[in-house]
Request: fold
Amino acid sequence: MDSDLIIQIKNVSYAYLDDGDPTTEEKLALDNVSFDVKRGEFVAIVGSNGSGKSTIAKHMNALLLPTSGSVLVDGMDTKEASETAPWEIRRKVGMVFQNPDNQLVSSVVEDDVAFGPENIGVPSDEIRRRVDEALRLVDMYEHRKKGPHLLSGGQKQRIAIAGVIAMDPECVVFDEPTAMLDPKGRREIMEIIERLHSQGRTVILITHFMEEAAAADRIIVMGNGKLLVDAPPADVFSRDDLGVLNVPFAVSMARKLRENGIDVPADIVTEKKLAEFLCR
Reply:
């Protein structure tokens, strides 16, 4: 096991029965997928609906187990750990889903954030510290005594993230966390994701929004259950053979500027970096 790697996906295939009907043939949701994630990396996974990106995400903390191949989390094989110590996997890799309402379990915000640590036996004083720290990280500390039903969709998603952070995972997988939010809510969640990464946590982001993927260290493109591309954002967005991708505004604008004689560096793929370059 390479100590620099937190997740290893090795020749993973995953089959499911079409529409849940046991009389139908199995279909491959994942087809021989392999890649590694280093500690502290920010990896985005993109692709069209049905490409397998959410399926591979669920393999990273043993919510799903491979039909063939293996997934290692900090050296632990998820197939073996699912029988002996599944919580060890999920303490290493936390997961935030698309719909925050499906992740909230309590009628008070701070109780909801404390739910995970309480269930793994964290001491009370440490739970208090973790809850307060997690709520401050997502800018929701002032709402700690409220009921989740009183919050907006973006605020609920921030509470869901706080609940995962309170478990103190080394890696957090975000499965389309902004899909149900308005533009303001999406920006707020992305700010939190980038904040977590800047603090040294490993981040894996499943997203349909290329502007979000552009913030990652590298992008994995999935299609029909296969890994199509694994490369830095600038390399991915420079390709013309990936029809599933709509390039971010900054990439499109940089191309037009180059066509008009402005030498914009090829590695500029975010609006922030483009603005910084133009202001210089």
In short: The mean pLDDT is 89. Residues 69 and 237 are 30 Å apart (CA to CA). The first strand starts at residue 5 and ends at 17.
